[in-house]
Write a structure and sequence with these properties.
By secondary structure, the chain is an all-alpha fold. It has a domain of about 45 residues. It is about 70% helix and about 0% strand. The protein is flat.
């Protein structure tokens, strides 16, 4: 089967390919169709806002992991020794405690 995409859909496919997530346009279309099928299977109702928010959250996490992997490949990371890791973890715990004390607001 052959299909013709609108210019906007072609740009979306190119962005998906450029992200490195998809090796071919066919992979992207397959993923999109699987997503569509899962979303519409068994119901003609719209996906709930919670489902949409969850999918966006998962996509953001996947994007962040891919970006981190790219940074490692480019050598953009820091090696830590045991003492530095202890300091890093203590700093993370301190910020978490401060966040909880502030009512869950993120601390810089």
């Amino acid at each position: 089967m052959e299909i013709t995409l609108t210019p906007e859909l072609e740009r979306m496919v190119r962005r998906g390919m450029a992200s490195g997530r998809y090796a071919t346009p066919e992979d992207l279309v397959e993923d999109a169709l699987v997503f569509w099928n899962e979303r519409t299977a068994g119901t003609n109702e719209r996906t709930s806002n919670d489902d949409i928010a969850h999918r966006r959250y998962v996509q953001e996490l996947n994007d962040a992991v891919r970006e981190a992997q790219d940074e490692v490949r480019r050598g953009e990371y820091k090696d830590y020794d045991a003492a530095e890791l202890d300091c890093l973890f203590e700093d993370i715990k301190r910020k978490g405690r401060e966040s909880v004390a502030a009512g869950g607001k993120e601390q810089p």
